[in-house]
From TrEMBL, chains A, B:
It comes from the Eukaryota. Keywords: Acyltransferase, Transferase. Belongs to the acetyltransferase family. GNA1 subfamily. One of its GO terms (biological process) is UDP-N-acetylglucosamine biosynthetic process. Pathway: Nucleotide-sugar biosynthesis; UDP-N-acetyl-alpha-D-glucosamine biosynthesis; N-acetyl-alpha-D-glucosamine 1-phosphate from alpha-D-glucosamine 6-phosphate (route I): step 1/2. PROSITE patterns: GNAT. The lineage of its organism: Eukaryota, Fungi, Dikarya, Ascomycota, Saccharomycotina. InterPro entries: Acyl_CoA_acyltransferase, GNAT_dom, GNPNAT1-like. Its EC number is 2.3.1.4. It catalyses: D-glucosamine 6-phosphate + acetyl-CoA = N-acetyl-D-glucosamine 6-phosphate + CoA + H(+). Transmembrane segments: none annotated. It comes from Zygosaccharomyces bailii (strain CLIB 213 / ATCC 58445 / CBS 680 / BCRC 21525 / NBRC 1098 / NCYC 1416 / NRRL Y-2227). Residues 5-148 form the N-acetyltransferase domain. This is Glucosamine 6-phosphate N-acetyltransferase. One of its GO terms (molecular function) is glucosamine 6-phosphate N-acetyltransferase activity.
């Protein structure tokens, strides 16, 4: 990890910091402390295998403040011999901590965690971020389509 | 549904048919009946909300045989007011049943199911399938990146 920063799973005390960091990425909307706690409880108790959690939400901290956050979700499939696939989601770096390679550190951490269990890790990004993810070891695999 | 065909959740009796259909899509590898049953059990018991299953694996049947299969996975996020996102995965039509709009029927079913609960449904596809998904109401949202 980058000097001065540390990384660990999201905890309930991270409520404000995680919501603030995610606001740099997209609309967070109204999320009460009770809703946050219920979501963290869900993430902490959902298993994808008897001894493996399904959700791996992380924060990078500096001076006990949230500087970045990101999620690895593990999916259980039939293909590839009942294989697991990791999905990296909702990578956000707080505006005050941008330009310090925290995104890279977070992606490297979640990718290593995913590849320890999954036959591949995938993520969706804007075309403008393709070069960044290529530096992290990713390659283009397809097109993300959405229906709202 | 297309006349002569029906749709329902995957059941344990679909073992051979689902594996055969998925083989038209990608490598299934060695999946024993016991592994299939354990995976279906997991899909049937994992909750994303107290009253909502996380995995929605479906088959289209004709004469009690699997003609197509596909999955909707629901993810629980913080963004968008603790919103849910649907991921469509592993859409496969058996070679004997191709050209009969089963892919379209399956996507429409899984999309409706997803949008009943989620603020968006997403999927990754090859560039060659973009026009098909646009006909299903999807639009391009980004680039899929993978790390193996």
């Amino acid at each position: 990890m980058i000097p001065g920063y540390s990384i660990r799973r999201v905890e309930k005390q991270d409520y404000k910091g995680v919501c603030e960091a995610l606001n740099a990425l997209t609309t967070v909307g109204e999320v009460s402390k009770a809703q946050f706690d219920a979501t963290v409880d869900h993430w902490n108790h959902s298993l994808v295998l008897p001894n493996l959690l399904q959700y791996h939400p992380y924060v990078i901290l500096k001076d006990n403040q949230v500087a970045a956050t990101g999620m690895l979700l593990i999916e259980r499939k039939l293909i590839h011999g009942c294989g697991l696939v990791g999905h990296i989601e909702d990578i956000a770096v707080s505006p005050r901590h941008q330009g310090k390679q925290l995104g890279r550190a977070l992606i490297d951490h979640l990718t290593s965690l995913g590849l320890a269990h999954c036959y591949k890790v995938i993520l969706d990004c804007d075309e403008s971020n393709v070069k960044f993810y290529e530096k992290c070891g990713y390659s283009k695999a397809g097109v993300e389509m959405q229906h709202r």
